[in-house]
């Protein structure tokens, strides 16, 4: 049995994202099963690492998103993280994030 994680602090250029929850009911009132619900490709950034290292200077290269930003995600990929609040969290590299939504 895997231990449930309370807090995640991403390293380097990794970003922790909480996926948006898909609607389980259509506009017409039809209840969808879990297989019928499409994965959401949008999420909210929860935590951000310090950035990747510049090989010449050793300084961190800042990441283009910050906690609280809405981002567009790839349909597949990332590393799932199970936290104690039972929401879907995924850990991505900065290059995997497709866009920042405003």
Automatic annotation (TrEMBL):
Keyword Chaperone: yes
GO CC annotations, alphabetized: mitochondrial matrix
Gene3D superfamilies per record: GroES chaperonin
TM region positions: none
Matching CDD domains: cpn10
Keywords in alphabetical order: Chaperone, Stress response
Gene Ontology molecular function, alphabetical: ATP binding; metal ion binding; protein folding chaperone; protein-folding chaperone binding; unfolded protein binding
The family this protein is said to belong to: Belongs to the GroES chaperonin family.
HAMAP family (UniProt xref): CH10
Identification of the protein by name: 10 kDa heat shock protein, mitochondrial
Protein's organism: Ceratitis capitata (Mediterranean fruit fly)
